[in-house]
């Protein structure tokens, strides 16, 4: 049995990955500062898996705290690093907060991995590194574009830090470039918990359907796409979580061909905003109150993944449909709002 340190393990993607790791037989240590998560998520994880992972409440910007963490846990075989600040708009308003959190936390973790002989590292990257691709679906070989936000820049810099660290310290790292994660665990015991007004499409849709928001604003229908709305690659969070387990096992087994590897993690399917709304209406059986408004500054028109590399090299592909993902998101929203009582 291997021991995996999961930073940000009570967050949205982290908590689903912790479940998959436990179910795959790994022992998990969760680190989270609860800046964007609730401690109750631990109960959700335990409810699903029957196991409570070890939990360390720690802000990874605390350099000596990170050192002590590695002292307390001598047997760490691999790290999956989710912890980061992720609100694009906030990163424009307060870039230094993002550089401090997303970069310092990564550097302190890597220093301690190096000092403690921890060689296996998985990093949460993002399709945001591609900006607006000239061609879709986009492959991993496509050039990384100048970042459109400080948040996006922290993902690009993070990848560069990891590439250099692999070269210098014998680290093995896989960066997973996520497309748009949506949905929740089938049990509805864990899911996405955005604080305040959601910035992302699917939580805004489910909150609107639940009556918490009055109306969804669709940001533009005059883009050069079939129906005029933007296109993204929406991936079920459980499929995404499973990709982490596969990637980590690749490193554990020494099957990686390069010390630093990058994989797109998406479905390979592009869906427009209006298609997502239609699919949601179908699975929920409810018409959604929405209105088309102006474009949102900074949005790319269209981005979706070429997933050939993940299929061929990792042996991973997404199995859930858009409808299944939206159905799970809606069941989660109903559960946390007590709508089924
Ligand atoms: P999330 O906010 O739900 O999870 C991040 C977790 O990290 C939270 O629980 C938060 O409390 C914790 N955290 C933040 N800073 C910390 C710190 N300094 N010390 C300890 N814990 C800290 O976000 P998520 O959607 O689960 O995203 C996970 C990762 O995936 C992030 O790195 C994010 O940038 C990346 N990512 C997310 C998306 C997305 O659309 N959700 C897309 C691409 C990449
Ligand atoms: C999806 C589509 C919006 C909300 C962001 C980050 C990116 C990545 C994922 C981490 C777009 C439209 C949205 C709404 C809408 N995160 N929309 N009304 O923009 O692809 O990416 O999250 O790495 O870095 O930028 O996701 O969910 O915000 O938007 O019409 O209220 O939905 O315009 O076309 P996005 P999103």
UniProtKB/TrEMBL annotation:
Residues 4-266 form the NAD-dependent epimerase/dehydratase domain. Pathway: Carbohydrate metabolism; galactose metabolism. Keywords: Carbohydrate metabolism, Galactose metabolism, Isomerase, NAD. One of its GO terms (biological process) is galactose metabolic process. Its EC number is 5.1.3.2. InterPro entries: Epimerase_deHydtase, NAD(P)-bd_dom_sf, UDP_G4E. Its cofactor is NAD(+). Pfam families: Epimerase. GO terms for molecular function: UDP-glucose 4-epimerase activity. One of its GO terms (cellular component) is cytosol. It catalyses: UDP-alpha-D-glucose = UDP-alpha-D-galactose. SUPFAM superfamilies: NAD(P)-binding Rossmann-fold domains. Belongs to the NAD(P)-dependent epimerase/dehydratase family. Homodimer. This is UDP-glucose 4-epimerase. It comes from Aureitalea marina.
């Amino acid at each position: 049995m291997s021991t995996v340190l999961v930073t940000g393990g009570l967050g949205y993607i982290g908590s689903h990955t912790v479940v998959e790791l436990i179910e795959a037989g790994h022992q998990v240590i969760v680190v989270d500062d609860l800046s964007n998560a609730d401690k109750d998520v631990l109960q959700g994880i335990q409810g699903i898996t029957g196991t409570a992972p070890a939990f360390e409440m720690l802000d990874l910007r605390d350099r000596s705290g990170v050192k002590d963490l590695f002292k307390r846990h001598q047997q760490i075989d691999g790290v999956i690093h989710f912890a980061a600040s992720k609100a694009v708009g906030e990163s424009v308003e307060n870039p230094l907060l993002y550089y401090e959190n997303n970069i310092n936390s990564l550097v302190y973790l890597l220093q301690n991995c190096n000092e403690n002989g921890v060689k296996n590292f998985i990093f949460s990257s993002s399709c945001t590194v591609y900006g607006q691709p000239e061609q879709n679906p986009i492959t991993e070989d496509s050039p990384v574009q100048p970042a459109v936000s400080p948040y996006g820049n922290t993902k690009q810099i993070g990848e560069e830090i990891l590439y250099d660290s692999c070269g210098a310290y014998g680290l093995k790292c896989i960066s997973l470039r996520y497309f748009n994660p949506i949905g929740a665990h089938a049990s509805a015991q864990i899911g996405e918990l955005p604080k305040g007004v959601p910035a992302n499409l699917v939580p805004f849709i489910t909150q609107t359907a639940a009556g918490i928001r009055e109306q969804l604003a669709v940001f533009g229908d005059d883009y050069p796409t079939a129906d005029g709305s933007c296109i993204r690659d929406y991936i079920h969070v459980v499929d995404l979580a499973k990709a982490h387990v596969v990637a980590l096992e690749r490193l554990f087994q020494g099957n990686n061909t390069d010390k630093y590897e990058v994989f797109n993690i998406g479905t390979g399917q592009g869906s427009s905003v209006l298609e997502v709304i239609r699919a949601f209406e179908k699975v929920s059986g409810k018409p959604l109150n929405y209105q088309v408004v102006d474009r949102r500054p900074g949005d790319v028109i269209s981005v979706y993944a070429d997933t050939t590399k993940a299929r061929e090299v990792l042996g991973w592909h997404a199995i859930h449909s858009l409808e299944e993902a939206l159905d799970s998101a809606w069941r989660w929203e109903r559960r946390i709002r007590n709508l089924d009582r």
